[in-house]
């Protein structure tokens, strides 16, 4: 790769014109010392900073902008609005306090536990149920589940947090908070579990709590139309805890109830066998409600099975239900007579709402009526809000179709389209009533849901109940309704407005409240200390910076690195001592060309910084380097002269193209490369190529190349004046380049020495691109003869220069000797056929082999196989001869050591065990290739016969190992002669053969670990420069995530996207903020919930809190595996429906509450009536 150097137009960084530079140069050359004012002028530090300045980098006296103005803040660092130390403290617990005690308490969402919270709030707000739970006495009160629900109720009532934590209760039930469950099923199973535990308590006051509140009964009545007698099974009552209400196909609650309780005609082939008549007769059969509980739970069947999709889906049909309803007309006539004095009007107490269009995911909220105040509350996990208009006003929760309507009778009238007075027919079964009822009893809607409903004129009203509320609620999300009988009174009497907490729970609540108050106080104290420490640091910075400006008449001052001072003023935590090394020249003095990188401060401020930070070095105006200053002044003095010379040279080159220069003038000139001259003219003389003007036309013998060799060897004659300009400019640019290299090397050595003094590992990144061993890029011709510096520019006068005779002879001989070369290549291929063919070499212990450069062998194979008669087509040119074997072998050695101490700069090849034999396992990626020593000697004799003594052979041998207890020893050695230790395991390349055997290669010379570390550091720096590269992000449940999990996706990292795992495109300069936004778009995770983890040293580590940090700073590479853990701190409402609509994957099998305490006690999973 060619490099370009700018021709100096002046002294970069010097604010001097030509006259000032000449005067100062003359003064320095005469041995006079410049005044301090002159030195400050050179450093651009002689001008005071304007008071209205906002910060100028080109003025060392400008200290504005280092700190913000009084009262202002910055986005990060010492001066940010909230100190960084407060971020690590977490959330202020005082913000979690319950400010308004009249506001009910919420429940924390543990991940996907909104269904638990909604159900618990419904039970808690049922005061009779809460009071009964408080009355549970030991030993039942000590039960794990009963104890936790009692403590949770006490926290909801008397806790000082605005949201209680149900984690202990969820753990007692063994609930998986990463999976969304059915809220109806949870409430039903929880009541069943509580019934079982309270019933076994032996305490009369609570053992029948659940049946007394929630249990009703029904029966199926079959009446013969001939004798009018009821079947014997008609008196068999069945208990239920909830009624299943059909939503699909029903517009309102009363319509669905009427459909469920309608009579069914048994006639024709479906006649009933009457025991009283002794024959099959026509009959009616219907469900009769015998007894209704005080609290009636209605489960709206929103989740139905779709036969087309073969999965459960949510029915989002509009469904209306009243605030109050008279269920008397729906009861059995016998029950009406028994309860004639009791009113059957029920008032709505709670609504359980499922938001979202998915049956498997979504979000639950609850609307609950507080009986003591007649206020409606909306419970959404931690958030509890009042509902002034009641549940009718919360249209957002009821879906897009939600609305309020007039009397329910009108709504049913609009939606009715079903005929009355006609019974449903049942196919002939030939079964008696007893045989029919001995089978599993059908539930109210099972078996009826797909058949038309007809209301019996003799049992149920012909129209909706007139006693229903005058205002209905229409909802697409209502999932469960809870009604309370208006006239019901508890046998224990109604509890007071404020239910007293028993003494056994009062101590627990007081202890929890005390812990919370203590946590708030400790947080406030720690917060105050952090703020005071930051304020003290800010005052220190401001005080020192107030001393920093140098007074006009103050001679003593110091220079400090502008970058270091800015970082110190921002309290960079990685900053240690003062570091002025960037301001030093190779001679250790103050570099005059970097005024923009330094700030001038007073000696008093410097002493304060020294006392607090230490470091240095101490640099003042008199420490300026006169050697570097003279060089820069010389550049300024010559800039004008060179600019005029460049314009003259450009004019001559244009005249040369237009043939305005006479033939005599050209014949007295010099030859230059035509290609070089064209490139110089394109650059308009602004820079000089690293190749000399005659390098392209110089042969290895130091003569003029024949023009017949190709277009790159073409030359053109230029006048002597133009040649003198080219010669002078190129030599000056060459000297400047060598000086820059020397300065860079000195600066690197200074950095290494400084970091080594602090015991730090140093990784230097070389900005120069070096040709790697084995590269196919041809070296410049000027490197073939390796001329000394200053001699690479050869002169070729037109009158005395002739084309090189040796090159002409070689040119003519190359064509004549083509067949001879092909024959020699064929002979060489036949002498080493396996090596030429690239056949794998099987290795044996006790045999010495040779490591050769793989890139050179590839070129050699291309040469011998392509130059042979078999591999070369007729008339084709010969392939290039392989390059120098000596240079290729030397490229494998490190630069850290020289001579006989040289070591290998690359890892040894790895091994593979195939068919019971050892062979090289990475032949395509290693820098080495293992060859037989005989083949090495053949190649050495043919390609480096004259340099055979100067080429070092790299010997290698197979070393079998035996693995025992994570250590290895050489096969045949004593057990205590271990060859693998903790300090060399990283460099050994082991190949596993069997369970207990392995092998590695040993080499002479050995591997240089320093060189390999440098290569890895350079490779890492190169990999951290990328644009639009893919990284794989994967969403992992918080309960399943462990920092020690090395590979969450299996042994093979699949690039295929799936649900919860997808690739995203990023760039090295992207910020963490950008990465989080892309994760939102890909995984639909709230940015504040996305806890990003990357694998570092075998552990998953959380990405830093600095969202403005670049991905390259965190070492994120292309194809990186990134794990995202959703913390659920913020609400990811209804994201599951999005996944269901966009995902084509098969639905997973539902587990329900299998494995939890809700299923282990024996409760059934029957939906609806029991």
Descriptive notes:
By secondary structure, the chain is an alpha+beta fold. The chain is built from 30 helices and 43 strands. The strands form 13 sheets. Strands 6, 11, 15, 16, 17, 18, 19 and 22 form an 8-stranded mixed sheet that branches. Strands 31, 34, 35, 36, 37 and 38 form a 6-stranded antiparallel sheet that branches. A hairpin with a 2-residue loop joins strand 41 and strand 42. The protein is elongated, with a radius of gyration of 46 Å. 31% of the residues are buried.
Task: Identify low-pLDDT runs.
Answer: 1-12, 406-470, 758-791, 973-995, 1046-1052, 1133-1148, 1162-1170
Largest sheet: 8 strands, mixed
Number of helices, where a helix is a run of at least 4 consecutive DSSP H or I residues: 30
Helix content range: 25-40%
Described by the principal axes of the CA atoms, the overall outline is: elongated
Distance between the termini: 85 Å
Structural class: alpha+beta
How many E-type strands? 43
- For the residues shown, what is the average pLDDT? 76
- CA radius of gyration is 46 Å
Q: What portion of residues belong to β-strands?
A: 15-25%
Short description:
With 1170 residues, this protein is an alpha+beta fold. It is 31% helix and 18% strand.
């Amino acid at each position: 790769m060619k490099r370009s150097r700018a021709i100096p137009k002046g002294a970069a960084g010097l604010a001097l014109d030509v006259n000032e530079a000449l005067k100062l140069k003359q003064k320095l050359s005469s041995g006079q010392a410049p005044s301090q004012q002159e030195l400050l002028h050179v450093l651009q530090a002689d001008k005071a900073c304007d008071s209205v300045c906002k910060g100028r980098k080109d003025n060392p006296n400008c200290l504005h902008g280092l700190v913000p103005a009084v009262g202002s803040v910055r986005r990060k660092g010492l001066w940010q609005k909230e100190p960084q130390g407060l971020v690590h403290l977490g959330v202020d617990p005082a913000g979690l306090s319950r400010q308004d005690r009249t506001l009910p308490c919420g429940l924390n969402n543990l991940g996907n536990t909104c269904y638990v919270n909604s159900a618990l709030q419904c039970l808690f707000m049922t005061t009779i149920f809460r009071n009964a739970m408080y009355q549970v006495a030991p030993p039942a009160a000590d039960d794990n589940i009963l104890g936790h629900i009692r403590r949770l109720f006490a926290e909801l009532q008397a806790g000082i947090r605005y949201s209680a934590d149900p984690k202990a209760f969820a753990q007692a039930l063994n609930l998986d908070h990463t999976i969304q469950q059915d809220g109806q099923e949870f409430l039903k199973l929880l009541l069943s579990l509580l019934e079982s535990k309270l019933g076994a308590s032996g305490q009369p006051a609570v053992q029948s709590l659940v049946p007394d509140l929630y249990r009703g009964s029904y029966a199926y009545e079959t009446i013969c139309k001939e004798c009018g007698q009821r079947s014997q099974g008609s008196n068999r009552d069945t208990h239920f805890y909830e009624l299943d209400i059909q939503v699909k196909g029903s517009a309102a609650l009363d319509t669905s109830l009427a459909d469920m309780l309608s009579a069914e005609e048994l006639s024709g082939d479906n006649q009933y066998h009457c025991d009283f008549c002794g024959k099959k007769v026509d009959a009616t059969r219907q469900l009769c409600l015998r007894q209704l509980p005080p609290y009636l739970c209605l489960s709206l069947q929103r989740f139905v099975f779709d036969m087309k999709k073969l999965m459960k889906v949510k029915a989002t049909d509009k469904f209306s239900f009243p605030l109050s309803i008279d269920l008397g007309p729906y009861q059995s006539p016998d029950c009406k007579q028994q309860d004639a004095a009791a009113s059957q009007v029920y008032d709505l107490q709670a609504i359980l709402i499922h938001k979202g269009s998915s049956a498997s995911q979504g979000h639950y909220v609850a609307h609950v009526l507080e009986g003591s105040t007649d206020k409606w509350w909306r419970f959404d996990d931690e958030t509890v809000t009042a509902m002034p208009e009641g549940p009718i006003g919360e249209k957002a929760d009821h879906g897009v179709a939600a609305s309020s309507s007039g009397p329910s009778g009108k709504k049913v009238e609009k939606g009715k389209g079903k005929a009355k007075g006609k019974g449903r027919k049942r196919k002939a079964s030939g079964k008696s009533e007893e045989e029919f009822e001995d089978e599993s009893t059908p539930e109210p809607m099972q078996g009826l849901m797909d058949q038309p409903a007809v209301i019996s004129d003799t049992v149920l009203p012909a129209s909706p109940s007139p006693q229903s509320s005058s205002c209905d609620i229409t909802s697409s999300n209502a999932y469960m309704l809870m009604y309370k009988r208006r006239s019901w009174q508890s046998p224990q009497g109604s509890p007071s407005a404020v239910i007293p907490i028993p003494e056994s729970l009062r101590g627990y609540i007081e202890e929890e409240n005390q812990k919370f108050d203590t946590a708030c106080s400790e947080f406030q104290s720690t917060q105050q200390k952090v703020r005071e420490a930051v304020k003290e640091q800010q005052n220190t910075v401001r005080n020192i910076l107030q001393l920093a400006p140098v007074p006009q008449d103050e001679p003593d001052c110091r220079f400090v690195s502008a970058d270091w001072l800015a970082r110190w003023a921002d309290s960079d935590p990685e900053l240690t001592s003062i570091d002025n090394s960037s301001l030093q020249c190779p001679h250790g003095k103050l570099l005059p060309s970097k005024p923009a990188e330094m700030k001038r401060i007073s000696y008093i401020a410097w002493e304060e910084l020294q006392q607090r930070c230490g470091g240095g070095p101490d640099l003042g105006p008199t420490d300026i380097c006169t050697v570097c200053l003279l060089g820069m002044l010389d550049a300024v003095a010559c800039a004008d002269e060179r600019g005029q010379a460049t314009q003259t040279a450009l004019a001559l080159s244009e005249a040369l193209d237009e043939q305005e220069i006479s033939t005599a003038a050209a014949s007295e000139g010099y030859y230059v490369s035509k290609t070089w001259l064209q490139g110089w003219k394109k650059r308009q003389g602004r820079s000089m190529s690293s190749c000399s003007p005659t390098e392209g036309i110089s042969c290895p013998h130091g003569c003029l190349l024949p023009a017949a060799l190709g277009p790159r060897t073409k030359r053109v004659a230029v006048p002597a004046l133009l040649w003198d300009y080219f010669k002078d400019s190129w030599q000056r640019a060459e000297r400047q380049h060598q000086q820059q290299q020397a300065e860079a090397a000195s600066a690197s050595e200074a950095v290494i020495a400084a970091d080594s003094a602090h015991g730090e590992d140093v990784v230097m990144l070389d900005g120069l691109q070096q040709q790697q061993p084995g590269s196919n890029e041809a070296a410049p011709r000027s490197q073939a003869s390796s001329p000394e510096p200053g001699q690479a520019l050869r002169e070729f006068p037109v009158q005395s220069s002739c084309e090189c005779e040796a090159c002409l002879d070689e040119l003519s001989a190359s064509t004549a000797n083509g067949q001879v070369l092909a024959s020699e290549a064929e002979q060489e291929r036949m002498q080493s056929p396996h090596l030429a063919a690239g056949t794998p070499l099987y290795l044996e212990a006790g045999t010495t082999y040779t490591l050769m450069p793989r890139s050179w062998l590839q070129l050699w194979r291309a040469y011998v196989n392509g130059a042979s008669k078999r591999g070369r087509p007729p008339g084709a040119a010969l392939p290039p001869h392989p390059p120098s074997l000596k240079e290729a072998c030397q490229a494998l050695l490190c630069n850290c050591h020289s001579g006989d101490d040289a070591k290998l700069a690359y890892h040894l090849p790895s091994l593979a065990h195939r068919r019971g034999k050892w062979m090289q396992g990475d032949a395509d990626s290693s820098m080495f290739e293992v060859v037989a020593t005989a083949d090495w000697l053949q190649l050495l004799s043919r390609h480096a016969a004259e340099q055979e003594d100067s080429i070092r052979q790299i010997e290698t041998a197979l070393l079998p190992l035996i693995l025992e207890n994570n250590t290895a020893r050489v096969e045949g050695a004593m057990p205590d002669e271990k060859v693998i230790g903790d300090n060399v395991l990283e460099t050994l390349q082991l190949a596993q053969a069997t369970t207990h055997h392995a092998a590695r290669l040993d080499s002479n010379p050995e591997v240089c670990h320093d060189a390999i570390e440098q290569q890895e550091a350079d490779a890492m720096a190169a990999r951290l420069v990328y644009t639009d590269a893919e990284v794989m992000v994967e969403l992992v449940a918080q309960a399943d995530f462990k920092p020690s999990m090395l590979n969450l996706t299996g042994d093979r990292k699949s690039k295929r996207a799936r649900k919860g795992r997808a690739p995203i495109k990023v760039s090295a300069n992207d910020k963490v903020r950008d990465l989080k936004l892309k994760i939102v778009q890909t995984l639909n995770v709230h940015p504040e919930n996305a806890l990003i983890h990357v694998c570092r040293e075998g552990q998953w580590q959380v990405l830093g809190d600095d969202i403005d940090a670049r991905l390259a700073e965190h070492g994120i590479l292309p194809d990186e595996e990134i794990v995202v853990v959703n913390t659920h701190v913020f609400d990811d409402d209804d994201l599951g429906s999005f996944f269901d609509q966009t995902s084509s994957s098969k639905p997973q099998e539902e587990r329900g509450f299998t494995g939890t305490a809700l299923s282990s006690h024996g409760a059934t999973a029957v939906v609806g009536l029991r």
